[in-house]
Specification:
Largest sheet: none
CATH topology: de novo design (two linked rop proteins)
Number of strands: 0
Shape: rod-shaped
Helix content: over 70%
Number of domains: 1
Distance between the termini: 86 Å
Radius of gyration: 25 Å
Length: 188
C-alpha cells in the first residue's frame, strides 16, 4: 500500500486534536451539570430555612408583641428571598438580607428571658443553626464546582473551546458581610 505510513501519521495528527476537543467539551458539559446539581442542593437548604422562619416568627410573636417592626422585616426579607429566582448574585444579596434580619431578630430575643428558655424556641433555634450549617456546606460544594468550571474556562487552550462553545463563567454564591458568616448561636 503506497503512502500507508503517511496516512497513518495524518490520521493521528487529525485524531489527537479532535479527541482533545471532544474531551474538553465534555468536561465543560460535566462541570456545568455539576454546578446545576450543586445549586439544587443549595436551593433545598435555603427552602428548609424558608420553612423554619415563619415558625420562628410565630414563636417570637407570642412572647414579644411589641417587636412588630423586627418581625415584619424578617417576613419581608424571607418573602423576597423565596421569590428570588434571578442571577446567583441577586439571590446571594437577598439571602444576605434575610440572614441579617434573622440575626437581628435573634439578638432582640435576648431581652426576653422567658422566650429564651422556651423549649419550642430553643428547638427552632437549633434547627435554624443546623440549617445554616447545611447551607454553608452546600454553598461550599457549589462554589468548588464553579471554581473548577471557571478555571477550565480561563486556562489556555481550553478557554478557546469554551469561548467558541458559548460556556460563560458562572457566578459564585458568596456571603459578603463578615457578620452574616456567623451562624445564629444557641444559648442554653
Amino acid at each position: 500500500m503506497p503512502g500507508g505510513p503517511f496516512w497513518i501519521v495524518v490520521g493521528v495528527v487529525v485524531a489527537i486534536p479532535l479527541l482533545w476537543l471532544i474531551a474538553t467539551l465534555n468536561r465543560f458539559v460535566r462541570l456545568k451539570t455539576l454546578i446545576r446539581e450543586s445549586w439544587a442542593n443549595v436551593d433545598v437548604a435555603l427552602k428548609r430555612r424558608y420553612d423554619l422562619i415563619p415558625n420562628l416568627v410565630e414563636t417570637v410573636k407570642g412572647y414579644a408583641t411589641h417587636e412588630r417592626e423586627t418581625l415584619a422585616k424578617v417576613v419581608e426579607a424571607r418573602n423576597r428571598a423565596v421569590a428570588s429566582n434571578g442571577p446567583i448574585g441577586q439571590q446571594a444579596e437577598d439571602e444576605n438580607q434575610l440572614v441579617r434580619s434573622v440575626n437581628q431578630l435573634l439578638a432582640r430575643v435576648e431581652a426576653y428571658p422567658v422566650l429564651k428558655a422556651s423549649e419550642g424556641f430553643l428547638a427552632l433555634q437549633r434547627e435554624l443553626v443546623n440549617t445554616e450549617d447545611r447551607i454553608a456546606a452546600a454553598r461550599r460544594f457549589y462554589n468548588a464546582n464553579v471554581r473548577e468550571y471557571n478555571v477550565l474556562g480561563q486556562q489556555f487552550p481550553s478557554m478557546l473551546v469554551g469561548g467558541m462553545a458559548g460556556f460563560a463563567p458562572a457566578d459564585f454564591f458568596e456571603v459578603d458581610d463578615v457578620a452574616i458568616r456567623v451562624s445564629p448561636k444557641v444559648q442554653l
